[in-house]
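Please check what follows.
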Amino acid sequence: MSKRILLVEPAYKTRYPPLGLMKISTYHKMKGDEVVFAKGYNNDIQYQYWDRVYISTLFTWTWEETIRTIKFYYATLFNFAGKCFVGGILASLMPDELFNETGVQPVVGLLDDPRKIEQDDDIIIDRLAPDYTILKQVENDNFRYSYTDAYLGYATRGCVWRCEFCAVGTLEPRYIPYIDIKDMVKQIVTESGEKQNLILMDNNVLASTKFDQIIDDIKSVGFVKGAMFGPTRRKRRVDFNQGLDARFLTEEKMQRLSEIPIEPMRFAFDSIEYKDIYIKAVRLAHKYGQKEMSNYILYNFKDTPEDFYERLRLNVDLNNEFINGDGVNTTIYSFPMRFIPLDAKKRNVYTGNGSWNRRYLRGLQVILNVMKGPVMPGSEFFLQAFGRNTEEFKTILLMPDEFIRNRLVCNWRTYSDYESRLMPYVKEWMHTYSELSNQEKHHLIMILGANNKEAIRQNYESTSKGNVKRLLESYLEEDEIVSKYKHT
């Protein structure tokens, strides 16, 4: 007898479709079951009977929305349902906390063992192709998932490293060096039609002893260099979207990678200690004609603002090297990624190991918000956004938010001199800060570090006249100062 299956994804913001739920849908449809997918709260299904209910979870900082969703269904739906399961990233990283809060025993890790959800067969759900058709049940004019025109999957699972900042060791504890993607692609084509792109979410594909076979598989399903898709002849692309590990990149592997249309090629640059390894990998990619590259730059973990700046600046220097080199125009975009503890229930609370503080982190966020994500490769833009050196970078981070947002005069690119591009209040702030003694700078940083306006006000009132007081005053009057110059 067929069963009624309900899949629920909490209403947090996400661009990627819920791959785990999509595979569970495939599994139940194979068994002839009815599958319904809901996003967030759905009153129409709350009081219906379901043989099984599955609720997915995402990052730990979606805690509040996830718990609200589980509790929304718990008092009614769960009492009617035959079996209920909560799994995914948050459930795997914080199973005890989730159980204590909801009374639901989470499913930890991958669905790689039929016993985890009490299956009556030996099918490994994690190896099934995702069911794209369920997405239409929740998409509308106001909401669409991204990346639905791509085959989403894995050619490997897990990672050979156990980095402190990374959740993969818990989510995928065993490294699996090879998963055949050919059947997955074939099944998706049969059920949902062909897809333009291939997105592989492997956490360390370069560590695989079956790497050559993986490349052969990718080529066999239509992703060779220069491949086109559909009647409009759109470029096909392969994206290892979790990044490639520069430590495992060799000449031979780069040659194989150059046989498939990778766009972009992503590397992680998590620590300045990997500087030489990173440079070697990027130059090797350039040698083999890789035109578009991006890299994840972790910060607020064990780094300092100084070495964060150095990693960004290095990419700018490499861009300049490639532009002025042998004609292969390789472009590198940097994507700063703030470290968030693996058990954090809120996104931007942790302030690192002491080198970073709330003011530095806030200042950096203001800069990144202006750029809307990636750090552009041009040296002129970089120097204006982040400063000409590490000291100037930290000076910018300490400025009031409105000063950072409104640092440059209109048509700043028409001015060749760096100083001429800055608004008068910015030049004054930077000059005043440079006049401080080391002791005064330390005192100012201690005051601003908490990024608390009331604390700044109290210290302003208790501080005697001098440059520190002048800088604190600019925090209290930043809106008025910026507004004054906007109208002149």
Observations:
- The chain has a mean pLDDT of 93.
- The chain has three domains: 4-127, 144-340, 412-486.
- DSSP finds 21 helices and twelve strands in the chain.
- The CA atoms of residues 93 and 245 lie 24 Å apart.
